[in-house]
Design brief:
- The structure holds 2 protein chains of 2 kinds.
- Chain A is mainly alpha-helical.
- The model of chain A has no long low-confidence stretch (mean pLDDT 90).
- Chain A has one domain.
- In chain A, α3 runs antiparallel to α4 and α4 runs antiparallel to α6.
- The two termini of chain A are 38 Å apart.
- By secondary structure, chain B is α/β, with parallel strands linked by helices.
- Chain B has a domain of 174 residues: Rossmann fold (3-Layer(aba) Sandwich).
- Chain B has 8 helices and 10 strands.
- In chain B, β4 and β5 form a beta hairpin.
- The longest helix of chain B has 19 residues.
- Chain B is globular, with a radius of gyration of 18 Å.
- The N and C termini of chain B lie far apart (43 Å).
- The chains are: A mainly alpha, B alpha/beta.
- The structure holds adenosine-5'-triphosphate and magnesium ion.
- The site of adenosine-5'-triphosphate has 12 residues of chain B, from α1.
- Chain B: GO terms for molecular function: ATP binding; ATP hydrolysis activity.
- Chain B: This is ATP-binding cassette domain-containing protein.
- Chain B: InterPro entries: AAA+_ATPase, ABC_transporter-like_ATP-bd, ABC_transporter-like_CS, P-loop_NTPase.
- Chain B: It holds the Pfam family ABC_tran.
- Chain B: Keywords: ATP-binding, Nucleotide-binding, Transport.
Amino acid sequence: MVIKKLIEVITHIGEFFILMKDSVLGVTNLYKIRKELLRQLEFFGVNSIPLVTFASLFTGMVSSVQTAYQIRDYAPLDFLGAGVAKAVMVELGPVLTALIMAGRVGAGIAAELGTMRVTEQIDALEVIGIDPAGFLILPRLIAGLIMVPLLTVLADFVAITGSAVISKLILDLDFSVFFQGIKLFFHSIELFGGLLKSVVFGFIIAAVGSYSGYIAKEGAVGVGKATTRAVVISSLTVLMADYFLGVILYG
Amino acid sequence: MDEVILKLLDLSKSFEGKKVLDAISLEVKEGEAVAILGKSGVGKTVLLKSMVGLLKADSGHIFFKGVDITRLKRKDLFAIRKHFGFVFQGSALFDSMTVYENIALPLEQRGLGRDEINIRVKTVLELVGLPGIENLLPHELSGGMKKRVGIARAFVTQPQIILYDEPTAGLDPVTGIRINHLIGELNRKRNVTAIVVTHDIRSATSICDRIVLLSQGKLVVDVHVKNIEKVEHPEFVEFLKSAKIQEVRNDKK
Ligand SMILES: Nc1ncnc2c1ncn2[C@@H]1O[C@H](COP(=O)(O)OP(=O)(O)OP(=O)(O)O)[C@@H](O)[C@H]1O
Ligand SMILES: [Mg+2]
């Protein structure tokens, strides 16, 4: 029973990587997928801006309050900006954005490709002589790789700004002090390490969502399963990858 | 004309231990129209999809003009599929694309110029009796219109062979007859080989030269339409009877 399950999981992982390889090889036909790529860039990026802004604004705001509370016995508030900025750039920005995207975009990809699978649209592409991997999955991968880091930059910016505003309003900490703290302790690896993580997360979200939808079966029920599976697996993989990348980058 | 275009040899396929296709062999000649008859769930769709490699058979061979497509690499398989058209049971139009984009896609894939594509799309939509619907989206079409757009998409590349999966199922009789007429015309006037999966023996007899019956994984009947009255296989007789009953009913009206 356990062994059977294990074999199933390993088979899936194998098939996942084969599908990703086929998708990436589709890059030779890039001009044919430009329309789909634009659609995905919009779906991934533009349409996610409100949600990411909203979530990171509140995360930044609560970070001020929380950090101030945590450091109040052993450090002056002058360090607040530095503390919040580090937490946001290294961890909160990339992970929060990725989890939001896993829920919004990963699920959307799985539902769309799953529907295309069970309504034979993927078969129809194959018959036309178009490799569905390169045609459907590659644009989603590219969109993920580009848009998730960009949204992370946005999230970082909004969260830190939100934090600065709340520090001023509630803790009466001057903007100049807040940003001075950030400047003083800033290491570029914090920002770029965070962005590097978000590139990996972007791949995970697009790839897991695509694979999950691509292998859907059994009609509407199967599409539902594929969607849930995409969100669960991509969220967990993001958190796992975050740990290992954290160890590599900052350990 | 008498050349074999598609040949199946001992084709078998199981799903989770259930044998759906059991050593099927079939030869289809160029220009022929063959109907595959069978009850719901016997594996007609599985058989049709295996013919273009959409499903991998467990064993056996499929030859397209002598080339064994079960042995082809992915890339070569895609190349050989250009000779095929496939009309799906549920039409399978791409729902994010307009009718025009749906029909143009296989032409773009072949690298045709924009002018040529525009002409071909227009012509083929007229052929299926739906001129001027280029800019509609699939969800704006009725079931019968979708089927006809599906046929248009399959035919626009001028393939040598078209596989039809229940092209008339679930349609009103008038639209059904129209589609049958279209399939027959493509076959007779343009010499497109047709393999038509159906459970309606009357559309089978009206379009096809030959009828085969799929039952319990085997092709149990293979007969020219002229001789269908002579077939003794009970399931085939059942199919014939059901058609006759309908005829009687129609007479009474
Ligand atoms: N991908 C699959 N996985 C598991 N079983 C399948 C799969 N595809 C088909 N089957 C099984 O194979 C059998 C034949 O299915 P198929 O769709 O070919 O029937 P059909 O003759 O086309 O029926 P219908 O007239 O209803 O379309 C069914 O029992 C079905 O459950
Ligand atoms: Mg079927």
